[in-house]
Amino acid sequence: MSQLADLNDVAVFVRVAQFESFSRAARALGMPVSTVSRKVTALEERLGVTLLQRTTRRLSLTAQGRAYFDQCSEPLSQLYDAERVITQTQKKPEGVLRISGPVMLEQEPFYAFLSAFLVEYPLIHVDLYFTNALLDLIAENVDVAIRFGELEDSSLVAQRVGRSVRQLVVSAGYAQNHALPSRPDEIGQHPCVLINARNNEAHWDLVNGRKSAKVHVTGPVAARDFHVVCAFALRGHGIALLPSSYCDAHIASGELVRVLPDWSSPEIFVHAVYPTRRFMPHKLKAFLDALKAWQSPLWFPLR
């Protein structure tokens, strides 16, 4: 099978045929006349035919040149149109933005943020997928994922957008009926409500300034998301280590009580993760900028 002609040479030939002039085509293409002439000649040699009849007074298509022009001009025009559509799409925030996040984002503050974002960018449509599983962004066609905690090494790009901590809490009823821990090593003497635990046991890393502690905990309930952990903590099933966004309102209402208030989890960073920096769509850039500027009640701002 013979090699196809260079598309650049074909595009130059089409321009020359349209203008019926090497010089006018050269001006339109921003090329020297000699380059335009050389490309047309190279195309003719490649095809083994004469496409243009050249005289000192005029330039015209041969019969074969006319047939070749008729076959090439329309596909080239469609190619230019496709490139223009893609370029215009890249220049303004529009299109479907596929966003993944953990189940803990299924809260009114995040919905309000997305609602305001959609009002500001009416040409963007969001496709939301809440899951605690670490999705393969490329395989699942996800534009950006919001993730909490340590990130696995990968080829993905990550931007920090905030930080979070988890607090030790227990229901007010449990606190009334039990002597609460006074030191971290006493937490293990109490039932705990756990997140992502294996065999209903786990280790909690805690910090208090420069002090740190690792405690072994077990409990009657283990869950995959904080909604469930919070629900069972409120029902008095033990101590829970919850993000501030889950427990602050319940602490303010008196339903939950802080345990060892000087102790908490280490800081947990919140990241926006996406496949690549190259050719970032404007819809994604707009979302990342909005996310970094958002005064989120679900996490603390970066220091």
UniProtKB/TrEMBL annotation:
Database matches in SUPFAM superfamilies: Periplasmic binding protein-like II (SSF53850), Winged helix' DNA-binding domain (SSF46785)
Entry annotated with the keyword Transferase: no
UniProt cross-references to Gene3D superfamilies, sorted A to Z: 3.40.190.290, Winged helix-like DNA-binding domain superfamily/Winged helix DNA-binding domain
Lineage, uppermost ranks: Bacteria, Pseudomonadati, Pseudomonadota, Betaproteobacteria, Burkholderiales
GO molecular function term, any single one: DNA-binding transcription factor activity
UniProt record similarity statement: Belongs to the LysR transcriptional regulatory family.
Keywords recorded for this protein, A-Z: DNA-binding, Transcription, Transcription regulation
Domain of life: Bacteria
Domain HTH lysR-type: from-to ranges: 1-62
UniProt organism field: Caballeronia novacaledonica
Record's protein name: LysR family transcriptional regulator
GO biological process, one term: DNA-templated transcription
